[in-house]
User: Fold these one by one.
Assistant:
Number 1:
Amino acid sequence: MPVVHITRRERFSAAHKLGRPEWSAEKNFATFGKCSNPNWHGHNYELWVTVKGATSAETGFVVDLSALSRLLHEHVIDQVDHKNLDMDVPFLKGVGSTTENLAVAFWKQLESPISKIGGTLHCVKVQETENNSVEYFGG
Amino acid sequence: MPVVHITRRERFSAAHKLGRPEWSAEKNFATFGKCSNPNWHGHNYELWVTVKGATSAETGFVVDLSALSRLLHEHVIDQVDHKNLDMDVPFLKGVGSTTENLAVAFWKQLESPISKIGGTLHCVKVQETENNSVEYFGG
Amino acid sequence: MPVVHITRRERFSAAHKLGRPEWSAEKNFATFGKCSNPNWHGHNYELWVTVKGATSAETGFVVDLSALSRLLHEHVIDQVDHKNLDMDVPFLKGVGSTTENLAVAFWKQLESPISKIGGTLHCVKVQETENNSVEYFGG
Amino acid sequence: MPVVHITRRERFSAAHKLGRPEWSAEKNFATFGKCSNPNWHGHNYELWVTVKGATSAETGFVVDLSALSRLLHEHVIDQVDHKNLDMDVPFLKGVGSTTENLAVAFWKQLESPISKIGGTLHCVKVQETENNSVEYFGG
Amino acid sequence: MPVVHITRRERFSAAHKLGRPEWSAEKNFATFGKCSNPNWHGHNYELWVTVKGATSAETGFVVDLSALSRLLHEHVIDQVDHKNLDMDVPFLKGVGSTTENLAVAFWKQLESPISKIGGTLHCVKVQETENNSVEYFGG
Amino acid sequence: MPVVHITRRERFSAAHKLGRPEWSAEKNFATFGKCSNPNWHGHNYELWVTVKGATSAETGFVVDLSALSRLLHEHVIDQVDHKNLDMDVPFLKGVGSTTENLAVAFWKQLESPISKIGGTLHCVKVQETENNSVEYFGG
């Protein structure tokens, strides 16, 4: 059966800031600019997860998108939506919440669960604003 | 000269939470749901400001959009972008940061400055997510 | 308290066709064009519901958007999503499923329930495609 | 029958510049900024035309959207798409091509033809960029 | 000459349902959920076709986009727009209308005609809703 | 450290036309259609630049997006925004302003500067209209 890429979008709204706690406010501002505001800021993030696989001859599905959506909620969205990415999310502890790091961290959350529903995780894309986004393809 | 409505969009990213400080966490959660997360969450807000006025016979402008954009930055965007709406913004002190209250507060910031560049403020629209927005027409 | 307009977007995907059953296929095609295809076609509809009201001094809300969303699902979305608008929807029986008629029919479904949660229905907007939409303000 | 507002979007791509021919380049730059570039610039414009009217009991239409689209092409789009708004468009001769003036000029082009297909022109909206737009309601 | 990828978007609105005719309604619902509604539902689909090729030194084109658009209409859009994907489309007969299967079927329709206008089909992307899409790269 | 792809969007509005100066108007129209209008037309272009690289263990960045944005403005946007692509842009002299050629020309402008801020240019995407875009991956 043909191998296709299927993509599901989910959204979450979260607070965060950039900055290393051991650095001074000045050094953080010099490095991270307005993103280092001590009292946080936030975004409406968009998460695009692409799964690769052969379509089933029986269903015409690579994976059931309802199952994929539930999985994305369980392993990512429910843990980050309406949260502070730097304070409230166990799997992000000690990870600076740059969009780059979020994409990699979400990949780690998702790779194994997606393999269990029969797909192969191909890409995690995180969009922070309409102008900025990151894609991670693993590896 | 014909009277038209001209709209300028600006964007800002901010943290906030909903909840009355004198209420218990339980009551705040019952009232405001996940928006009451104690450690904040955040959004990419969009601000649409509509100015009404007669077009100038000389320029064909109601107001100079560059001047309007600078004004919106000075009186709103620069004060809320990459900030915590509940902690960092003097003109929002004591105002619960619902989208309704933001629209009204931004109107108060903008009405007088816009009149000074020759326009009449007609509508402030604040979009919190792709699904939720508020318009305020004054009065 | 200031009176504002708050808008909630919901989405649904449905099949429909245009045409009067008592007319010939030729007359239906002459009147409704490709929208009269006998075997149906369909759309991803967007529904924008605007509620007008004074903000609460206590909560800063006109209406609780979560409650509004549940209400929209109960009275409209759950009845039309992944349905055939001409065959499956009791409140649309005998109503040609033009976007104009949908907007009016959704208004009738929503006006009373919205008044019961403390708001006044101001506008129902139905978007059929990225190029076509209808607004109904009652009356 | 209920009165509704129906909106059709069309698009066109055009060159233009702002500036009064009798003014110096310096004065035009001081007034119109980068929009006065002598060698033109351009935009993907979006035109949203809203027609108000009672729905037909027979068809459920205010106006046939296919007829409306053809009318918009004949009276506006075909004359401005892939054109220079300041050089190629008879009905814009002597009209500075600000978005404000375009909205008014398009209204004049459309009001009478729309009345002939049974609708009342309610609003012409012209969007110049994702951040700038103008609405004209006549009068 | 440099090799680039050029993408053209087209849109179509269609009805469909998911489900194997030889299965019971219960099994179809268990497998395909609300997408198995017997009376159909529908979508505004978006089709993105990417063609790869060297740019012509003479024209700066990989392929003439007008020719590509006509080709997409002839081989796909005109056959699926305002149709029932499961009843009205010869090249989809016996193919369950999942987005995965649509992407593969459209590829088969397009690969040869695109090669005849001098391009190489690189990707067919079908977007079913704002949250769901499929890409097929052949093979 | 993981290798990710980071994308920044910028926008510019410009005039252009297609056509070879040594060809007749008839031949240009036969080849380039309405894009050959002698008095120009224009677009709101979107530029998406994707940079590939390992995330920094110290900052969590591949490249500082603020630095990337400044670089894009210096080497591309400031030279093309509110300009005539065929008359005003030194690095496009003698290059027909098809979207294909723009993507390649922007790549040449950006490859070296991006390497100097520590990233590797991966893709330049230029979107001319909501329906047409080109991606160039170098080589």
Note: Chain D touches chain B at residues 18, 20, 31-33, 95-101, 103-104, 130-137, 139 (CB under 8 Å).
Number 2:
Amino acid sequence: MTQQRFLLHEHELPTHWYNIIADMTNPPPPYLHPATLQPLSPEDLAPIFPAELIRQEGSSERWIEIPDEVRHLLQMWRPTPLCRALRWEKALDTPARIYYKWEGASPPGSHKPNTAVAQCYYARKEGLRGFATETGAGQWGSALCFAAQFFGLECRVFMVTSSYHQKPYRRVAMETWGGSVVPSPSSMTQAGRAILARDPETSGSLGMAISEAIEYAVTHEGFKYSLGSVVNFVLLHQTVIGLEAQKQLEMAGDYPDIVIACAGGGSNAAGLMFPFLKEKLNGSRPNLRALFVESTACPSMTRGLYAYDWGDTAKTGPVAKMRTVGHGFVPAPVHAGGLRYHGMAPSICTLLEQGFAEARAYQQNGCFDVAVGFARAEGLIVAPETAHALRAAYDEALACRESGESKVILLNASGHGHFDLAAYDSYLQGALPDHDLEEDQIRRALLELPTVAG
Amino acid sequence: MTQQRFLLHEHELPTHWYNIIADMTNPPPPYLHPATLQPLSPEDLAPIFPAELIRQEGSSERWIEIPDEVRHLLQMWRPTPLCRALRWEKALDTPARIYYKWEGASPPGSHKPNTAVAQCYYARKEGLRGFATETGAGQWGSALCFAAQFFGLECRVFMVTSSYHQKPYRRVAMETWGGSVVPSPSSMTQAGRAILARDPETSGSLGMAISEAIEYAVTHEGFKYSLGSVVNFVLLHQTVIGLEAQKQLEMAGDYPDIVIACAGGGSNAAGLMFPFLKEKLNGSRPNLRALFVESTACPSMTRGLYAYDWGDTAKTGPVAKMRTVGHGFVPAPVHAGGLRYHGMAPSICTLLEQGFAEARAYQQNGCFDVAVGFARAEGLIVAPETAHALRAAYDEALACRESGESKVILLNASGHGHFDLAAYDSYLQGALPDHDLEEDQIRRALLELPTVAG
């Protein structure tokens, strides 16, 4: 019978992270200072991030060594399995060969601990006491609380209010791992209090939670700020996913025609795709397609403007050039999954602008349709975020059925949905609304972009 | 660095189940008919179970071949990892070497699908339309719904009322996999209606839910009944756990001094331990200790009577000789986990009676204490049931610290706790009560045992 799971040994975990910046002819333009809008220096970032992470952020080395202690912790669950979706292929009656990388195998249930462990390692090395961070759907916060305990670090999580109430189990998981969680905006920071004063009933946003976490970090002795996506060093840490998948597909004797992942800030997508995109950038795989999938409820890649924007609502973090729907953007609370950041990783946006990658947006009900079919075929209940990647893979597989092509589709199954079953419940009861962003809402948000020369 | 995970390839999944009955000098006495109390014939079981499972129930063959199609489905997640608990050992400052078999890696999150897949395979082969079953904490119901879909079988689940309300996510998971779930006792069966008439506010019990499921099965064309624990064929199907663990410990160069698992009906415990107990039964490992761990809220092994008793409340299922707190027993609704069956697998009770195994009971708060420590050391949030096994392993590891012995402890981490976070929340808030069974409650329950000659 055809093999379903491709497993690697502990010692086959990659020894180095892959830095795509080294292979980009035109890398993303520099970050700007949030107040002066002038290019940001590493010193400007020093109060916010650990020094080694700032160094990695600006690095153009192609390979960066993974410290032994980080590798040993990653080996708790890595290498993760690569699975052939045999039963799903059969259910879809497609000649496509579909593979998924199962990142839901990590203890916190997603790809997020790949970078959380590394960030906590560098924080500890620097002698920090703890991290403050934001979380939307809760995958990132869970991962950081999980990782922080291995290094004796405290973890303070600002969780977007709507998710805090929709996903109580996520909060309990974070607390079980020793973290402290508050709904954001909170009264714990000036940024939070200012937002609540303007809009006491706000459902919150990642932009607001980032502002609070940065403020908490810079005003508390021994704390720095930890970010779960968007910036280069996070995407770098995620490349173990794609590097493993390359070895595993080699075991399977296949190579992808198309790689697919969902993207909120872009980290799981970059993690899977960047090692493959290396081969497109260097010309050896010119026909490889890289498809980033987002939600119509927060369509930064498909409807945003490619422009400099602040990374957070209170304008305290770096300004980055990216596709954005505006730093003041608040996603509709009916949106069940993550994928709710107003911008997108600058490196991914550069690749999109340069035509090395493509983007697509989906409504959530169409994603749950496919996720339920996937659960019944492959047994796994995935996170709503991951359901967006499944939806795109489904459409590609059906296109193969039409055309008769046996394409190889590789997707990142970035996380399980065990803490998202309230959303599945709504979906199964027909009570989950779709949501499109109104043109006006985007136009209003974009009016607030900074004016940057050039 | 010391290896943490011991992985086997797909093709190393065992080809045969191990049947401990073949190695018992005095196997368990026969089942009795629920009405006549005379020895039960295979024909008596025919309306309830698929024929091949009845054959396996009575078999004394040592090895029973696993059908190819069942193996292929098990390979979706099996072989499961064997993990060395390096960080937990360090946290406990123990010289013991602790290994855990991680059954939470299955899609439904526990060991239960090991038998669910096999049962559905035989049901389909027999041309059945569906299964009715009971579930307590929900792990079994999830596993059967998950497995049923692969064979196009319908699945009707009677879920103990207290769990149905405490664990809504379990219900949603079952529905996502296409199952139908009702709280039990329900008005859907005569047995359920009779119980509700006597006690409309009952929190339910496994004994009641079994009665309802059997009744539903025998009164619906094309349905039979599926049981998730207790009987020989279920325990048989679980032995893949221990057979894999034997190979994996060999890779690690170790052999257990003590094997530990929690036991409600006994299936995960038997699955891990029977292949090791084979070597105690045949005299080659006389010093091996096998420790079955239960809850003080339902202490069949440590406080029950070894006697014939009905397997269900309505007295419609087989009568078995086992340690029992009485078929009318209702566990306190404050009890968070599974481990709530009034009896115990007859084969395990026989081993306990003959001195080949030992049993111990714990209060739930002491189990959660250890489970939270384990989550912070090993990253995994386990089910409350599994927490009982962890508690026993913890006590053994601390005894090693006292004595300075480097014992090898092997435990079954039977399931994850992702759907049990409400219980963790109560525990973390100090709001989870402990519960001891009162002597009177046991005495009353035991008055209702059948009078059987001999």
Note: The mean pLDDT of chain A is 95.
